[in-house]
Write a structure and sequence with these properties.
Length: 120
């Protein structure tokens, strides 16, 4: 009997591989991205102290998004996390795609954050 891997298991394995290579510090926090079918979330994490420096998501009311599960929402969240990073004094980050393929909404969030001034 052949066992097939579900998409969730494949994503978790990819995330484990990425996390072995990527770690955030106070100078270079980790920009962690999580996407669900309805929303997208981003966090700046200092792994040394175990604290979240800033976060942004499509759920936030101040972003005024009608639908959070599309590329437009990902771009808005990317700009928002970059602004919050600037306020916190963060210029450079390490990108953690969270096991998701660097494509679509994840790539749109990363590109928007770069355009707004984050370097990675």
């Amino acid at each position: 009997m052949i066992k097939t891997k579900t998409r969730k298991v494949q994503t978790q394995k990819r995330h484990q591989k990425v996390r072995l290579k990527v770690a955030g510090t106070a100078e270079f926090p980790r920009l962690a991205v999580y996407r669900s079918t309805k929303h997208i979330y981003a966090q700046l994490i200092d792994d040394v102290s175990g604290k979240t420096i800033a976060s942004a998501s499509s759920v936030e009311a101040d972003l005024k998004l009608k639908h959070g599960g599309n590329i437009k929402a990902a771009k808005v969240v990317g700009e928002s996390i970059a602004k919050k990073a600037k306020k916190a004094g963060v210029e450079c980050v390490v990108f953690d795609r969270g096991g998701f393929l660097y494509h679509g909404r994840v790539a749109a969030l990363a590109d928007a954050a770069r355009e707004a001034g984050l370097m990675f």
